[in-house]
# Entry
Amino acid sequence: MFSHVMIGTNDLEKSRRFYDAVLAVIGAKPGMVDRHRVFWRANGGTFSVSQPIDGQPATRGNGSTVGFAMASPEQADQFHAAAIAHGGVAIEDPPGWRGGPGGLYLCYFRDPDGHKICGLYRPPKA
# Structure
């Protein structure tokens, strides 16, 4: 359904370093810089950070979450750990299963610009 997700940043280089480390966990190569944006591609999707074109400060979306698909609970744990090790902030409950049997494995953190990011593993249906 989506071709890409782009979020704003006030520090392009800091965001590039952060997401290079975090997105490597899901197979993304280091981000490609294009003027005031950085792009990562993995698993058929594109994620980008951009300095706002209008010259105003980037702000986080209140109520917004960007979710990344994980291949396993262990990958979600690695994704979360990489984020925290590179300046992210753990939020909500620790990484773990939600919703009872057959539920989802989730982890949440905020990136250096305050955006809410989720790693989500959805087990195959039995």
